[in-house]
Amino acid sequence: MTETHPIGLSIRGGVKVYPGTRALKGVDFDLRMGAVNVLVGENGAGKSTLMKVIAGVETLTEGTIEMDGQTLTFRDKGDAVAHGIGIVFQELNLFPNMTVAENIFIAREPTRFGIDIDARAQSEAARALMKRLEQDIDPDAPLGMLKIGQQQVVEIAKALAQDARILILDEPTSALSATEVEVLFRVIDDLRAQGVGIVYISHRLEELIRIGDYITVLRDGLITGTRAMAGVDIPWIVTAMIGEGSKEFPRTKVANFGAEVFRAEDICLPRLGGGYAVDHVTLSVRAGEIVGLYGLMGAGRTEFLECVMAQHPQSTGRFYIDRAPLVERDVAGRIDRGLALIPEDRKRDGLVQIMAIRENITLSALARFARWFHINLRAESVGSAEFVKRLTIKVASAENPVSSLSGGNQQKVVIGKALMTEPKILLMDEPSRGIDIGAKAEVFRIMRDLAADGLAILFVTSDLDEVMALSDRILVMADGCIAGEFAPSVGHATVIAAASRQKIKDTAG
Asked: Which of 97, 124, 372, 476 gets the most CB atoms within 10 Å of its CB?
């Protein structure tokens, strides 16, 4: 098997450090030619970082890349392309106002005598690629007029046009229909027969077993399993992905659920190019209950929370607070009715970095401190100090800029800002993202205490251990839909299977 599929690229001792995190921790990876090299792991495991290193988008902090017996350093993506490496990102890198052919050959346009672009040759070459991909797409059509699945096909054609020896496909089927997936698999078989080395990343575990020749599993920046695909089943993948143990965030107070506080019914958010980002979602949360919303990247969880907060006017469906219809159509109106959101990106959406800690905490509730046309600064200071103490935010002075705080303390400021509005339900999007393990424990303690005081909490997370340990009830989203509802006692494999749209026996706990 190994003689049939020689190693075309190797990484040895690969380390990638970003500020505050080690995304790769001494990775040894072999990419075999004429084979599909499957790469799998939870969100944040390091898959995309590893692929960006191979594609020249990122450089290793430590370690080496070897190709054809030579040690290489890719300074940028152009270097990697020159060595025959192409990548198709999950997020499309295309220009909607340009034609299909222009997108495929951008920065590599065929020219006539080096003077001007040979549009006819470009169009014919694009037509041939579309024929190879079994797609009836006009090369001269504006890309923005295509469905999202067709745009994904154009992205793949763009990589094929570079005659890549190594092709990286990052979630290539996430936006494709079943028919388009079958076409893609036929193209992959054709490339494999031509000796192309393919790296295939997907959360759809059954798909990986079907298409893969070799599998590598990443967890927290480390490789936890690598082998030929023969004999691999989904329980083996799940165990390698999540390990045997789990992080513990124990409940210290007895759960005491009250009446239903929040209900969403039949929520839909149309996606540009067809389909739904949020697809007929119905859910509810009771007073004192922590409901975890788990899903993989692109499942529609963040978009759902944005619909709740009136950030998508085109969304449809109905919301209720304390069984009364939520008719307010703007963010301020929904805050007044008792909704509060902790956004995924606290620096961009949750805080004003140049403003004081005090000002950030009170920003959503200034009406409480307004006296005619002025803010009562004394009352504001007292109010913010109360939340600094309550949330144990470590500050030298509440007058310091919020940017002076650590990530964990900034997250507490965002929570304080939300609580200042006296919400009935708290929506939290990835509340532990970008904070260390000690700060996580504090944030989770705060969530437990708030729930014990009767606050309803709906939180989104990509961390399986967190959702299993923190939730009173687990909802799983996949492809914009609710794919399952579980008690926290359910096994890890069952939750992963629901998120991956698989039906398997629960063999991993």
From this structure: 476
pTM, two decimal places: 0.61
Domains of the chain plus CATH, in order, are 7-242 (3.40.50.300), 258-338+423-509 (3.40.50.300), 347-422 (no CATH)
For residue 507, name the pLDDT band (cuts at 50, 70, 90).
very low
192-203: buried (b, 16+ CB within 10 Å) or exposed (e) per residue?
beeebbbbbbbb
**pLDDT 10s digits, 232-250:** 888 888 788 766 544 555 5
Nearest to 470 by CA among 454, 495, 448, 489: 448
Output the six-digit token pair for 16.
Answer: 């990638």
Rounded mean pLDDT of the chain?
86
Least confident of 198-212, 233-247, 409-423: 233-247
CA proximity to 336, closest of 344, 345, 348, 326: 326
Crossing angle for the helix pair 148-160 and 178-193, to the nearest 10 degrees? 10
Say if CB 178 and CB 209 are below 8 A apart. no
346 to each of 247, 431, 434, 467, how far by Cα in Å?
Answer: 24, 9, 10, 20
What band does 50 get if pLDDT is binned at 50, 70 and 90? very high
